[in-house]
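TA notes, week 10

Several of you asked for a full example with nothing omitted. So below is the full record: structure tokens for the whole chain, then the designed sequence directly under it. When grading your own attempts, check the secondary structure regions first.
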């Protein structure tokens, strides 16, 4: 039985034909506890750390008892998935989500997929990189505990955003190589919209317009980047961005 855990979008645990869906997790605190334990399953977390992840600065007066009760409920909910597949261990004032050796977690799969895609691109294997890049982007586009806040939640969201941007870069590059310049323009435009301070998006947008035969628009993208960085940060575009601009100028 292969365990699959979805932490983005709608929370879900799948083990064979057994599905533990988000509504079955014990309320808001139960969802936060499960997601935190899943994100950091490679190590044991102290009870204090886990309580902080669940309640933040608003710890209940009897939080230690409340945490024990919450974990008992979580274990009961996860039990149908099988103790060999998933369990919450306790020891020395700490807890850890124990998973089977072949467990799959979506956020880990996204990070692995983007690393694979970038590695393939470095070796010129553009066709092979298409699949893993799309996997990374599909997962990273989904929300992460959309209605919740907390430092550890923001960290995970930031990690997913990084995966998304790297994935979009990969797809834009592959689209240009595959002769799909219009798609590359759409992807790079999204990258600029999501993170306007990130120059890589402008560079891919310039290259995409150039590949589409629209050199004048590519040059306008550079001017847009230059003005934005000057107005917002008081800096010039990087040497990498200027190199793409000069390459486009020379192609005229």
């Amino acid at each position: 039985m292969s365990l699959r855990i979805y932490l983005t979008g709608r929370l879900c645990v799948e083990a064979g034909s057994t599905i533990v869906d988000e509504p079955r997790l014990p309320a808001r605190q139960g969802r936060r506890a499960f997601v935190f334990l899943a994100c950091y399953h490679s190590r044991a977390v102290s009870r204090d750390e886990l309580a902080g992840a669940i309640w933040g600065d608003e710890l209940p007066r009897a939080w230690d008892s409340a945490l024990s009760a919450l974990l008992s409920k979580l274990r009961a909910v996860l039990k149908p998935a099988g103790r060999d597949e998933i369990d919450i261990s306790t020891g020395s004032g700490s807890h850890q989500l124990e998973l089977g050796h072949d467990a799959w977690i979506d956020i880990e799969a996204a990070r692995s997929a983007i690393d694979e895609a970038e590695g393939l691109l470095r070796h010129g294997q553009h066709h092979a990189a298409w699949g893993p890049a799309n996997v990374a982007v599909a997962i990273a586009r989904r929300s992460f505990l959309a209605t919740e806040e907390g430092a550890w939640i923001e960290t995970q969201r930031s990690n997913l955003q990084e995966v998304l941007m790297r994935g979009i870069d990969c797809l834009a590059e592959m689209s240009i190589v595959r002769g799909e310049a219009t798609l590359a323009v759409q992807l790079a435009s999204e990258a600029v919209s999501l993170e306007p301070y990130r120059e890589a998006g402008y560079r891919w947008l310039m290259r995409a317009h150039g590949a589409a035969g629209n050199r004048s628009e590519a040059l306008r993208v550079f001017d847009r980047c230059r003005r934005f960085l000057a107005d917002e940060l008081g800096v010039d575009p990087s040497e990498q961005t200027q190199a793409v601009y000069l390459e486009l100028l020379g192609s005229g």
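The first strand starts at residue 3 and ends at 6. Use that as a sanity check on your answer.
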